[in-house]
Amino acid sequence: MNVVAGDPRQTPEARRTALYVVLDQIPPGKVVSYGQLAEMAGLGRAARWVGRTLGQLPDSTQLPWHRVIAAGGRLSLVQGTPSGDEQRARLRAEGVTIRNNHVDMSCHGWRPMEHSG
Question: What residue spans define the domains of the chain?
Answer without folding.
Answer: 12-57+64-115
